[in-house]
Every structure is written in structure tokens, then in C-alpha cells.
Design goal:
Layout lengths: L10 H30 L7 H29 L2 H19 L5 H15 L2 H12 L2 H27 L6 H19 L7 H7 L15 H12 L2 H11 L2 H9 L6 H26 L2 H19 L7 H14 L3 H10 L6 H14 L1 H15 L4 H22 L10 E2 L8 E2 L2
Helix pairs in contact: 1-2, 1-4, 1-5, 1-6, 1-7, 1-12, 2-3, 2-4, 2-16, 3-4, 3-5, 3-7, 5-6, 5-15, 5-16, 6-12, 6-15, 9-15, 9-16, 9-18, 10-17, 10-18, 12-13, 12-14, 13-14, 13-18, 15-16, 17-18
């Protein structure tokens, strides 16, 4: 009797989606409560940009470091161990963030939270990719990301529930509580069968150095990171600072950047669900990416154009920017599909966090080089930074291999590219 193919709505997909929901709630909460929380701990407006950039940079560095740690553990100890361990760490860190009183404390708490948050998506995507058949895994991972991304919308409305100046502290504590609840839901999730098989084989698992000791693997790894760069340029720069861009574009600084982030993430969530079906229809990950890259360029042009002349239009464009960069699930799935089972969790966990960790580098260009050193105005710095990011991404996408039809049931050896099929 033929074994029934797993449904895309199985328990692993549902729990991974809920996990990513909590992950995004906590990850984006700082960008939503940024200004009121910093004012509450004594940061004046003239220091706001510097303080907020410093805190988000530390959060992203935490994600970068955590991605490596959890990725290695995911291939050595199992996908589920990461899903449990990471959520426990970031739940504690987010609860602690609700008690900070200085910028240094804030940065330290977000750094630790970043380490914890780094493990959620990669382990979830890896688990779902290995549990679902190849004809369903693109849709399954898109549902995980699409549903999860609504966590940012939830974070915005939780913050809007009260006008109390200290309500932002409760928002962080709620995030910590949601994580603890999620721990209990994960008890019923099964480990990946592919991981169970590879654990019994005499192969190296979760060795981060393997991305660098083989030229072909290294090339695939770098390209897998670069194709995702526009996502955090859009959120970390354009949408996060949309109130300041609004002041430059049409002289109104009253725009609520937290609300802009909420609209952007509605767009991202819809885009991430849709791109899975587009990829399925086209039988191609790359073609779906190219469509969304084109929409990203178009939305970016509108962002900096004269058509962006009031707050309503800015919110609409932020939604469009979000939708057009709603390819997070596909590019992470492509990263997972590029590598064997003994290295897949390390790839899927480090790649998105390398992209998140690229935000400090993007900020070095946008803030430190273009605005501080070259004394460029905000708009010029934003346009040039966006062009650089998009050119790098398009080149990387061109050289990236298609993975839609790839069988994932294989492993990799220390020095050689492909290896052997699992029994």
C-alpha cells in the first residue's frame, strides 16, 4: 500500500508557523516601539538615530552569531533541539528587555534575544523541507513564513492597546510569555526522518567550516546570502526610518514608523504566501524571485518619487515594498535545498541570519559613509544604498542554481561537493 503524502497543514508546518510568528513578533518589536521606548529611558531626539542604530545593530550581530551556533546544533543534535533551545533563550531575553533602563542594557538584552531568535526560522524551514515531498515543500515553507510574518502585525496592535508611556515594557514581557507557551506546543512535533538516517551514518554533521573548505560549496553559500539582501534593506532602512524619509520627501514627520512596519509586514506576509504558489506554478524558484525583484525595484522608485507626497501614500508604498520583498521563505528554502542533510540545518539557519546580520554593513554605507563621511542628504544616501544592494542581489541571483526539482536525500563530505544518496 502506497504511503500517504504528508499534508502541508500537518503539525510540523503549523507549529513552525506559530514559532516564526512569535519570532517575528519579538524581532520586530524594537522597530515598532523604538522611539517611545528610547525616550522613556532618557534618549533625546538628537541622539535617537544613533541610539536606535546601535541597538538594532547589536540585535543583528546576535542573530549572526546565533545563526552559526543554532545551525551547528541543528545538524549535530537535531532540528527539534534547536526549536526548543532557541525559543527558551529568546523568551527569557525578551522578558528581561522589559526591565532595561539604559541604552547599554537595551543593546545587551537585544543582543542576547538576537542569539535566541536566530534559531527559529532555519530549524523550522529545514524540518518542514525534510518532512514534506519536493512538490509541496515550497508551498509548505511559504505558509510557515507567511503566517509567521503576521507576528509583526500582532506586535503593532499589542503596542497600540495602551497609551501608557511604559506599555512598551509589557509588550516585551508578552513576547517572552508567548515563547514559553509555544514550548508546550512543540512536544508533539516529530524529528526529521532524514536527520535520523544521517545521524546513523559516519559523516561529519554541522561543521560550519565545510562552507569554506570547498570552492563550489562556498560559492553556493555566499550566493544564497546575497539573494536575500533587499529584505533587510527595505525593513531596516526604508520602512524603519519612514518617518524621517517622509520629513525629507514632503515635510511631514508625523508619520508613525511603527504603523508603516505593520503595513509592510502585512505585505510581506501576503507576498511570502503567494510566492510559494507562484514558484509552484512556474516550477522554478528563480523565476519567482525575479518577479519579486522587479516589483521591489518598482516600489523603491515610487518610494523616492514625487508621487510619495503624504502619509497615506507612504503607508501604501511601504505595503508595496513589503509585498515585493515577500520572498523570505523562498530564498531560505533555496538555501536549505542547496546542501546535504548533514549540513542543511547549518545552512538554513545561518543564511537568513547572515542576511539579517548584513544590516550593520548596510548601515555603515547608509549612515557612516554616505551621511556622516560624505555628508550626503538622507534621500541621496538611501537611493545609492538601495541601488548597490539591488545590483549585488541581481548578480547573485543570476549565478544561483535552480533548486525546485532537487532531491534533498543526500549528504556532503568534508572536501567533496556531492556525496552519496541516503539508503
Amino acid at each position: 500500500m502506497q504511503k500517504k503524502s504528508p499534508s502541508i497543514f500537518n503539525i510540523a508546518v503549523i507549529v513552525a508557523a506559530l514559532g516564526y510568528f512569535v519570532d517575528i513578533y519579538d524581532l520586530l518589536l524594537f522597530t515598532i516601539v523604538r522611539e517611545p521606548s528610547l525616550r522613556a529611558i532618557g534618549v533625546v531626539d538628537s541622539q535617537m538615530l544613533e541610539a536606535s542604530t546601535r541597538i538594532i545593530n547589536w540585535q543583528m550581530i546576535g542573530l549572526l552569531i546565533g545563526g552559526i551556533i543554532w545551525g551547528i546544533l541543528g545538524d549535530k543534535k537535531g532540528r527539534l533541539s534547536v526549536l526548543f533551545g532557541s525559543i527558551l533563550l529568546y523568551s527569557v531575553a525578551n522578558f528581561a528587555t522589559g526591565f532595561v533602563n539604559t541604552v547599554d542594557q537595551y543593546a545587551a538584552a537585544r543582543f542576547i534575544a538576537g542569539i535566541g531568535l536566530a534559531g527559529e526560522l532555519g530549524a523550522g524551514i529545514t524540518l518542514v523541507s525534510e518532512l514534506l515531498p519536493k512538490e509541496k515543500r515550497g508551498i509548505g515553507t511559504s505558509l510557515v513564513a507567511g503566517i509567521g510574518l503576521f507576528g509583526a502585525v500582532f506586535a503593532y496592535f499589542v503596542f497600540q492597546m495602551s497609551s501608557d508611556p511604559d506599555h512598551w515594557r509589557l509588550c516585551y514581557k508578552i513576547g517572552g510569555g508567548l515563547g514559553i507557551v509555544l514550548l508546550f506546543l512543540r512536544i508533539s512535533v516529530a524529528e526529521s526522518g532524514m536527520f535520523k538516517q544521517v545521524r546513523q551514518q559516519a559523516v561529519t554533521r554541522g561543521d560550519f567550516r565545510m562552507f569554506f573548505n570547498n570552492a563550489t560549496r562556498f560559492r553556493k553559500y555566499i550566493l544564497a546570502i546575497l539573494i536575500g539582501l533587499p529584505t533587510w534593506f527595505v525593513i531596516g532602512v526604508l520602512v524603519n526610518l519612514s518617518n524621517r524619509f517622509a520629513g525629507e520627501l514632503y515635510g511631514d514627520k508625523s508619520l508613525d514608523s511603527g504603523r508603516a512596519i505593520m503595513f509592510a509586514y502585512v505585505g510581506i506576509a501576503i507576498g511570502d504566501i503567494l510566492i510559494g504558489f507562484v514558484s509552484q506554478w512556474l516550477k522554478s524558484r528563480k523565476k519567482a524571485l525575479y518577479i519579486f525583484y522587479f516589483l521591489s525595484i518598482l516600489s523603491g522608485i515610487f518610494f523616492f518619487s514625487g508621487w510619495n507626497s503624504n502619509n497615506t501614500t507612504m503607508y501604501m508604498i511601504c505595503t508595496a515594498l513589503g509585498f515585493s520583498t515577500g520572498f523570505w521563505a523562498i530564498f531560505v528554502t533555496m538555501g536549505a535545498e542547496q546542501f546535504g542533510t548533514n549540513l542543511r540545518a547549518t545552512a538554513a539557519t545561518t543564511i537568513p541570519n547572515m542576511v539579517r546580520g548584513s544590516l550593520p554593513l548596510i548601515n555603515l554605507l547608509f549612515v557612516n559613509l554616505f551621511q556622516k563621511t560624505l555628508d550626503w542628504p538622507l534621500l541621496k544616501a538611501g537611493i545609492v544604498t538601495g541601488i548597490i544592494v539591488m545590483v549585488i542581489t541581481l548578480i547573485a541571483a543570476y549565478f544561483t542554481k535552480e533548486t525546485f526539482h532537487k532531491d534533498l536525500n543526500y549528504v556532503e563530505e568534508d572536501k567533496e561537493e556531492i556525496v552519496e544518496s541516503l539508503p
